[in-house]
């Protein structure tokens, strides 16, 4: 990983009154650019593709400039032109997945957030240790596939937008679907309603819902996911019937739906978010900025956290104009805008190094 000392040296050479906010043209980039512009920043889109014409359709979210690279290796090699623009990178799920966690850790451009979290997020065993040791409830783990005697969810490591996840009801079902060349985990399948809780932790904020190590935890929005083709599989009858016809359930995320949960669940939601933040500081130096707890709520009104995403997630995209929760803190502000606000405020207070790795 690029040493923190090196990032601090780069920031020492920046004109902090002329910071450019950059991200890869994908995932949640529209709201990142839109939020950055609202906070007065220049914006820069990074891409290895030619499909950026759609930004012309959204002038308030179109980056001021777009740089095209042949691949992510070239992006890393040409980092000097980003440093010349006083660039701060905003990572999102697609950015890290496409570049690769190891390459992103070595990308010598200041990045918002703690890059050390990537090794804990992308490895599902380490992620489980982090969350459960912090008191966050998770689905029960099945360590031996031959012992599957209930419905389970199988997940491959890394952020793949649900691609490759599958349900199995027994060992033969598991063997029929598994790609044994990839690392995976097997969890009990929790029946309930899926809610994706979008938090933001600001280590510099001095009021609000305070955490153990100082700083304030905010709940900015909640969504549900539309997944193809599992959401329509019921029309084919049972999953077993569909499989006999050669149709296998898929959990690829295709869209997001806004949600408000019952207010009595909010104390539990904040407790899980707080425990995740507190344990992160104890294990790897902290997690700040946006993160998402991906949960199931059972009919007993208990949460089960089946995953954590430690950057801005695409589920925040329905809330570019704010959400019922963000409107009670920062009316009309998206998660992308909240990131830009944190960078702006840290620039003014000379705390930018605290937020960058």
TrEMBL record:
Enzyme Commission (EC) number: 6.3.4.23
UniProt cofactor(s): Mn(2+); Mg(2+)
Top-level taxonomic group: Archaea
Domain IMP biosynthesis enzyme PurP N-terminal residues, every copy: 21-141
InterPro entries: ATP_grasp_subdomain_1 (IPR013815), IMP_biosynth_PurP (IPR023656), IMP_biosynth_PurP_C (IPR009720), IMP_biosynth_PurP_N (IPR010672), PreATP-grasp_dom_sf (IPR016185)
Entries under Pfam families matching the protein: DUF1246, DUF1297
Keyword Zinc belongs to the record: no
Residue ranges of every copy of the IMP biosynthesis enzyme PurP C-terminal domain listed in the record: 181-357
Record bears the keyword Endoplasmic reticulum: no
GO molecular function: ATP binding; ligase activity, forming carbon-nitrogen bonds; magnesium ion binding
SUPFAM superfamilies given in the database record: Glutathione synthetase ATP-binding domain-like, PreATP-grasp domain
PANTHER family given in the database record: 5-FORMAMINOIMIDAZOLE-4-CARBOXAMIDE-1-(BETA)-D-RIBOFURANOSYL 5'-MONOPHOSPHATE SYNTHETASE, 5-FORMAMINOIMIDAZOLE-4-CARBOXAMIDE-1-(BETA)-D-RIBOFURANOSYL 5'-MONOPHOSPHATE SYNTHETASE-RELATED
Protein name in UniProt: PurP2 protein
Organism field: Candidatus Methanoplasma termitum
